[in-house]
Amino acid sequence: MNRWTVHRRLRFVALAALLLGLNACRSREPVETEVEVRSIGFDSVSHSPVVVLQDHDRRRALPIWIGSTEAQAIAAQLEGVTPPRPMTHDLMKSILDGTGVVFKKVVIGEVKENTYFAHIHLDSGRKHLEFDSRPSDAIALALRFQSPIFVTTTLLKGDNGVDLMRQVNNGSTTTINGVTVQNLTDELADYFSLPPGRGVLVAEVHDRDGNELQRGDVILSVDGKEITGIGDFENKMRGVERGKRANLSVQRGSKEVQVHFDSPRG
User: Fold this and answer.
1) Each residue of 191-204: pLDDT tens digit?
2) What is the pTM of this model?
3) Is 180 in the same domain as 239?
4) In this predicted model, what pLDDT tens digit does every residue of 167-189 receive, in sequence order?
5) Are 139 and 120 in contact (CB under 8 A)?
6) Domain that holds residue 231
7) C-alpha pair distances (Å), 3 with each of 6, 13, 168, 263
8) Domain match, 196 and 129 both
9) In the chain, how many H helices and how many E strands?
10) Cα separation, 201 vs 62, whole angstroms
11) Which residues pair with 201 in a beta bridge?
């Protein structure tokens, strides 16, 4: 084998290795997924507080059961309530701010025997600091610092996570004016703290131009009339006068908002 043949083969091997590496990078899932606090509610069975985290695409969610004190601390921050005297998490924020420590992020990494484990990442300016924490305390602090919250992707997509789009491909959907809605399963109804048979879930928004609905919204009523499923939603939207806009009552996170939606086209 001459030198030119060896050289060409080496170049081919190097190129193949590079392409394999690039393909592996493209296909590799992120280790962590950034999430946001969707809501604070109560488990309908245990009546314990639950904080619900969801990814920014509103496709996966992770409910975590927490203590009542931590639930109050998270809810107060979400609602913009300032206590007359600093509570524990407010005090911790003041101390960290006063010492110049930067609150970087929170990572909820694993669950063992129904107990979730989180880590708080700080930067003192000289070194990176990492502390073990309960997820509830970590979330309450991250909200006060407006810092990102992450969940390991394997945990979010595991058995403890909720697939918000599970029903999209099973025939229980309808699309109106570029918005696909689906019926709520009992599991999803419990996740949204709704009684079974009430509301429809916005699974996808295809036409965003002038559309006020968002993926993950739950449509509760049309012009003040409650919705019981996609068939009921279709019928009530057909009853809206052509060219008019219906007033939808929508559950978005922990709040109920009013959204306008055009009557069906054609």
Assistant:
1) 787 888 889 988 88
2) 0.68
3) yes
4) 444 447 888 888 888 888 777 78
5) no
6) 164-262
7) 5, 15, 59, 74
8) no
9) 7, 15
10) 17
11) 182, 218
